[in-house]
Model the fold of this input.
Amino acid sequence: MSAAALLAVEGLSISFPGAAAGERMRVVDRVSLSIAPGETLALVGESGCGKSMSALAVMRLVPKPGRIEAGSRIAFEGRDLLSLPVPEMRALRGARIGMIFQEPMTSLNPVVTAGEQVREAIELHAPLSRGDARKRVLELFAQVGIPDPATRFDAYPHQLSGGLKQRVMIAMAMAMRPRLLIADEPTTALDATIRAQILELLRNLSASTGTAVLLITHDFGVVNEVADRVAVMYAGGIVETGTRHELLSRPRHPYTQGLLRSIPRPEARGGRLAEIAGAVPRPGHWPPGCRFHPRCPHAFQPCPVEEPQPTGVSETQAASCHLVAREVGS
Amino acid sequence: MHQVSNIVVVLLALGAVWLWRRVAQDRFWRENTLALWRRRRLAVLTVGVYVAIALLDSIAWIDPASEANALTSGKPRTIIDRIFQPETFREASYSAPLARVSFYGGQPLAHPGKHLLGTDLLGRDVVYRTLKGVRVALLIGGLTSLVVIPIALLFGVSAGYWGGRIDDGVFFAMTVLASVPSLLLLIALIMVLGKGTVQVCVALGVTGWVHFCRIARGETLKLREADFVAAARALGVSDGAIIRRHILPNLAHLVIITFALTFTALVLSETILSYLGIGLDGSWGQMIDQARNELSRTPIVWWNLAGASVALFALVLAVNLIADALRDIVDPRTHREEL
Amino acid sequence: MLAYLVRRVAYGALTVLGVLLLLFVLFFAVTDPDDIARKAVGERARPEVYAQWKVNHGYDKPLFVNRAYAASDARRYTDTLLAEHFRRMLTFDFGRSDADDSPISRRLWQGAGPSLTLTVPLFVLGLVAGVALALFVAFFRETYIDRAVLVLCMLTMSVAALLYIIAGQYLVGMLLKWFPISGFDPDPSVAARFVALPVLIGVVAGIGADVRFLRTIFVEEMSRDYVRTARAKGCGDARVMVAHVLRNALIPILTNIVMAIPFLFTGALLLESFFGIPGLGSLTVEAIQGNDFSTLRTMVYLGALLFILGQILTDISYALADPRVRLG
Done:
């Protein structure tokens, strides 16, 4: 881990109660990642792999009865977030770290106007007068590309389109110029054209304000648009990390390879769709050894037995795979 | 009159057997019933005991002339009556629980130390009177609901499923009835119909019907739009079959929970009616009402009130707990995935 | 919005007519005016006395059709009990009590004050206590505090209202002698003493059900996404519960609040009767015990009227409170 990392997550594990009394099962298992200042890291994976939980853990917003296990470490700007007293954590939330969510309709308070909600984000952290705060909100609205900000200030969420709502969310999260923005599938619920606009907005904001972005997504198209670096998650663990270019053109982990292969291409029309055989194992039902091994076309003798550790493929790329370890070792 | 009661008991017993077999056959019902048993054993047992007492108090017959004595000849006596022998097992007036002498005056009692909860103003054993109240309570709550629910279902499901004029009519009737505060309507009905057992039950039924009808109608409206109903219709299934096979089973859990809640509401409202003088004879409400004045005596007479209150409280609490557990069991949000 | 309001009010008016019809059927068609007369005057009066009494109390006309008039004469239908009933009820001409001949309207005015003195504090206190406790419990959901309070609620809900009153009167009034057990004095400086005990009992009796109901609403709101967003902004627990959860939960709660307003007038029947407060509830209880059908009829009608009014107000307030409904 680089000492200059803005966010350094080490060995993060999150567990939930299991079916039997007293039993706990992990949904996130020893995840480690880091984000440098101003960098955009995309955390990619299928539904249920634990990526959203990991993001919530950074904010310490893991919903009960979930629990961040002992041994996890999350350092932001050098400070250990997990041992921070609650009032200090609250001071960080919305000020130094911002977060936006997937469903803008339900993520905004339906009985409060858009402007008021963004203003709250400001007033919680800065002693501005109501008038000054309102001015700042209008500035923010303009920055995120909301047309006619003054009218939109008094609009209720249900009066705004999906794209506008998401812009309001972004304005809310960016209001105090955070160093890190966590975006949990921000475009999944939006139409394709709006998706492109929002992604472009995120890219521009990150560039102009120097804000780092942790982007959660399941869509490699999104990865391609905005990510600097990528981390791929499977069944609660990180299986591969690397730069965008490396992962999209030279993925080493069989799961990443499978994912990319399964993206339908127009040229391959008429042929069979590629797929990864089998299904993602549920928490509590993870196979022993490498969690991907039952579905892996290259599985061999150590895979069902031992969990693979990250093997560096280059300075920036690493994969947790016995096959890769063998290839690199030789 | 007691013959009717006997027949009803037989019918109920048959109905219970039929229900038991249906539940045992169906996986969903069997599991839910077992879940309920596991969670609320004490409450279910309590209700069971009450039901048993009520049944014992509903089976009555007249002694043939050869066996009868002067006090009991010609009157139908229930099993509870025969156990307690109220005609002879009594005193002149008040006596404290397990006392050997009367409460006022200290006269020796006819049955010293035998009255577990003492005797009331007329010397009647309080335990006996409390047990007699069980049947009345279950009559008010249970029998009334059992009659009301099918009728309310009929109207509610019809209104929800077919809509249109039927719905307009039913909805208007519901609104009119619901607009009158239920206690006032209840009082008005009883004043007008008279103060007998049947009349009170009818009045309770009329006021209780609306709430359930509204729920049935609402749920039917929702279910009517469900995908599986649309699929059934697309397959050409008739309306009647859809209602029987798709709508009613999905209403069943709601019926049960509403039954439990209506039960307690009815039993509790009867106590108010007793206070107003228009309740049922022999009910706990009546005992409580009579006992009211006893608290102002010195020394106070508390056992009458205690017997009726505890019996009432235990029953209502048990049913409430069961209804609560049922709601948890049936609520899809608390279901764990079983794959 | 306006069209909706108009429709709502029209339907409400229709409902009122329906209620009047129901009352007519109950009180005139099912009950025999002769019986009422007999109960009021006594069993042994001469027939002329009954007849005169019936004329005085408006029971002398035929039910639906007055065949004394020709078929073409409108009075054939308007000079009937049915028409009279509708006309008088709709014009609030309530007539006289069957029991003691006193004008009902006057009794209504006299009773309204004492009733409100009891029911308004009862309602406000009950609401505040219920909301506060429910918010508290919802925040601590799934913990021991939550479970303990829920058990308490279940227990208190299972006790009959009558028992609360009897126990309350006995324990607090007679044993502890903190408050008088009955009576009333309209003088504001003294009235509080008489109302304190019934209000206290009323709040305790109702709080169990209230807290459970409110808690469910609050817990439901707390699981919503916007609460997560609020926390992500840095909102503290108190702010989340009050500014976000309560604000949204108020909408379903409002329904119940506005609905309760009509009942403020009809009075808490039991409480007034037990505690000797001469309000509308007591009036109703006296009417029951005195077989006073005309007063009872009036009370039921007013109850329904207020209820319907309450429902219309509820719909309006719902529309005003929820911007999704208000602005479409």
Summary: Residues 127-338 of chain B form a domain with the MetI-like fold fold (CATH 1.10.3720.10).
